[in-house]
Specification:
Blueprint lengths: L1 E5 L5 H11 L3 E6 L12 E4 L14 E6 L5 H11 L3 E9 L33 H15 L4 E6 L2 E2 L10 H8 L2 E5 L9 E2 H13 L4 E5 L8 H12 L4 E5 L1 H6 L4 E2 L2 E2 L9 H4 L5 H5 L7 H12 L14 H12 L2
Parallel strand pairs: 1-2, 1-4, 2-3, 4-5, 5-6, 6-10, 7-9, 8-11, 12-13
Helix pairs in contact: 1-5, 2-3, 4-6, 6-10
Length: about 325
């Protein structure tokens, strides 16, 4: 299978390349050539900018397109229309953020998506990201009617994840000591290992599957307390977890999701369904999940290779965590 990958080998793109090569496919990448250009020297690498310069793709054909970096509908429409006669199939990596709300557990692919009052808006923010992704899906479908796979991915985790939203916890547990944990151990969380997602996407492209799929995991409900237990097993540490109330975290203005990764306050309107998305359709079509222990262990091993002065993009700074714990104990 001849594959064109739109995007660089940063995280999901890297996993897609590895999966495609392992399955014997021929792969061409198209990007600006600024992210890890030293990786995969055996690949054909075309350089350009999907927003303005697509000339490097002119006159070429592929079996499938894998698009990992589409955020603005106008840009996605331009590339999809440009490639409409150059490829049989188009896979667009979308997001579970497309949904208008997640207050109800068990949302499936038929749930309504968010909309923008002004569809010409192109600034990507926390508020516009999801609706813009939904419009990107529409742009792809219009260019590839019945020939497009829309993967609404949840939190993607594993080695090479520079967002640090999941990585924070294996690394923090491995550091040991007293650890601030939000709320209680029983709240649910969902995530999918980047390698599992990539393998599934490539297999779906092989058989030219079309349609919309929610894609996160695991197959069974997973609590945050269970995630921490697995982190402990992988680290060989014996930390002390101090569970602090959400009221305290709100009072101290601790940021959800980024400053305290994975955590969404139970007072949030969308809390109930945020980590209870229905992925039965993808699972029925072959999405599988490796043991969480493997994801945690591999993420931890990769994280230890980063420079000592690495600046984290998510998670509590040690001094901030220490300050919060001191306030909690002396409240």
């Amino acid at each position: 299978m001849k594959i064109l990958l739109l995007g660089g080998p940063k995280f999901l793109g890297r996993a897609l390349i590895e999966s495609a090569l392992a399955r014997g496919h021929e792969l061409t990448t198209f990007n600006r050539g600024t992210t890890h250009p030293e990786l995969f020297p055996e690949l054909e690498k075309l350089h350009g900018d999907r927003t303005t310069h697509l000339d490097a793709l002119r006159g070429r054909t592929w079996d499938v397109v894998l698009d990992t970096c589409g955020y603005v509908p106008r840009h996605v429409r331009t590339s999809a229309e440009f490639l409409a006669d150059a490829a049989e199939h188009y896979t667009f990596i979308s997001s579970l953020s497309v949904y208008a709300g997640t207050a109800t557990p068990g949302l499936d692919e038929s749930a309504p998506v968010g909309k923008l009052d002004d569809e010409t808006v192109e600034e990507v923010t926390g508020e516009t990201y999801g609706p813009l992704k939904a419009l990107c899906e529409q742009a792809v479908e219009q260019a590839f009617p019945g020939r497009a796979l829309h993967v609404r991915a949840g939190l993607i985790v594993g080695p090479h994840d520079i967002s640090d939203r999941f990585t924070y916890w294996p690394v923090r547990v491995a550091r040991g000591g007293e650890i601030l944990a939000p709320g209680h151990p029983g709240w649910l969380t969902q995530q999918v290992d980047v390698r599992d997602l990539a393998d599934w996407v490539v297999r779906m492209a092989e058989v030219r599957k079309a349609g919309v799929y929610n894609a996160t995991g695991p197959a069974q409900p997973l609590t945050f307390g269970e995630v921490l237990d697995v982190c402990v097993e992988a680290s060989a540490q014996k930390p002390k977890f101090t569970w602090v109330s959400e009221a305290f975290l709100a009072e101290e203005k601790v940021g959800a999701w980024i400053e305290l990764p994975l955590w969404i306050p139970e007072t949030e309107p969308d809390f109930a369904g945020f980590s209870a998305i229905n992925c039965a359709k993808a699972i029925a079509d072959g999405l599988t999940f490796r043991p969480l222990h493997e994801t945690v262990q591999d993420t931890l091993a990769w994280a230890t290779t980063r420079p000592a002065d690495y600046v984290w993009r998510a998670g509590l700074k040690p001094e901030r965590e220490a300050e919060l714990l001191d306030k909690w104990h002396n409240r």
